[in-house]
Amino acid sequence: MDRTTILKTTAAVIAISQLGLGLGYLLAQAAFNGLLGLSAAPAWTAWPFAMLGARFLALGFGMLLVVRDPFANRGWIQAMIAVQAIDWLATMTYLLAGTVTLGQVATASFLPVVFIVGLVAGYPREADRPQTAGFAN
Questions:
Q1: pLDDT in tens, the chain (137 residues)
Q2: Closest CA to 37 of 127, 101, 83, 84
Q3: Taking Cα atoms as reference points, which of 24, 39, 12 lies closest to residue 118?
Q4: CB–CB of 122/70 below 8 Å?
Q5: How many Å apart are CA 83 and CA 111, to the nearest integer?
Q6: Residue-wise DSSP of 43-62
Q7: What distance separates the 2 farthest-apart alpha carbons in the chain?
């Protein structure tokens, strides 16, 4: 599998997960948290969860842009690498502190690392820049 295929596949999987999380937190916060085995949150948390959902949707959209044109959307790749690193560090911090269980964090205990590896392995290099026809003056 070539680097571009690795990158596009990784970005597509991330896009699906981000869009799913976004819809879950935007439209059904309590039900979504229940699926994760989290205790009921106060009613006011629907507000920041809705805003979180919007950000998940934006990141999912950014990954779809990467699938379409990786070189032109390197900033989205860089942002997602940072997001996944922070997500994994936060997950491990709260998991090791006993705040959440492995069952609650589920794939968040390993998927960020997998996503980072795929994004870094396929990151577009200067040689990947699309060639455009130029006009001489």
A1: 899 999 999 999 999 999 999 999 899 888 888 887 888 889 898 899 999 999 999 999 999 999 999 999 999 999 999 999 999 999 999 999 999 999 889 899 999 999 999 999 999 998 877 776 555 54
A2: 101
A3: 12
A4: yes
A5: 12
A6: GGGHHHHHHHHHHHHHHHHH
A7: 67
